[in-house]
Amino acid sequence: MRDNATTLLWGEEDAPARPPPSLPSSTIFAGHHLLSPLSSNQDTAEVWRAEEPSGRQVVLKRPHYLLRDRLPTLEAFRREVSLCLELEHPGIVPVYRCGEEDGWPWYSMRLLPLGTLADRLQERAPLRLLLRILLRACEAVAAAHAKEKLHNDLKPAQIVLGAHNEVVVLDWGLVGRLGEPPRGYTPRYTSPEQLLYAPLQPSSDVYALGGILLEILEGGHPWAGLSADQCRLNLREGDCPVPRQGPPALRQL
Fold first, then answer.
1. Where are the extended beta strands (E) located within 111-166?
2. 161 forms bridges with which residues in the sheet?
3. What is the mean pLDDT of the chain?
């Protein structure tokens, strides 16, 4: 599924593709043994499954190797690390360690199972379970909002179920502060203000969560299959996703 990749800065359909990271000649980086790439569609960063000296497996993220010498990319990544370190909540993936290796910034995070809300939607899991998962995700996002941070790229593939039934929101790579301009988006879940590059507000994350709720109730997103350009055109024309198959009371909103 395309949604399983981290959103690209220009939107998932029209971003210039960069080659996926290949296993380097030396598989040791910052004291970690790089095991395998976890994402092949990242445009600005590499995400690896890695092993610490202790044997614990983690996720290691660093700027894409083709961009490691570009100062704006490195500064944006350092800012991402700083903001992610400020987020603490059981429903937000924790940062374990961070640092720089020969001027190449990186950070490591908890490695979680691959089961996501997107998978549960595809499996047509019970409605009560899907709503419980979304509620827990909302609590995590609310905790970030309380610290004036916004996720900016919420979608079912970013909501993961842990080994102990905990719900964790992943991929805070586009995290921003209130009032800042947006840095990227996924067209299907983009709010109108993000499309207009208006200053970030909690309403953008709330809009995305509402889109996920709509997908849960409908059994699929109304814009599934539309191109990024068509999604943007719909938003510009005020044609937002609306429920078609959900409860009658919801369709009247």
1. 149-150, 159-161
2. 167
3. 80
Count other C-beta atoms under 10 Å from residue 56's C-beta. Answer: 12
| Rounded-to-integer distance, Cα 247 and Cα 231, Å | 24
Separation between Cα atoms, residue 155 and residue 171, nearest integer Å: 10
- Is residue 107 a contact partner of residue 61, using CB atoms and an 8 Å limit? yes
With bands split at pLDDT 50, 70 and 90, how would you rate the model's confidence at 243?
Answer: low
Phi, psi (rounded to 5 degrees) for 88: -135, 115
Measured distance CA(82)–CA(76) in Å, rounded: 10
Q: What is the pTM of this model?
A: 0.77
Q: Is 174 exposed, middle or buried (0-12, 13-18, 19+ CB in 10 A)?
A: buried
Rounded Cα distance between 175 and 163, Å, is 25
Q: Which residue has the higher pLDDT, 91 or 235?
A: 91
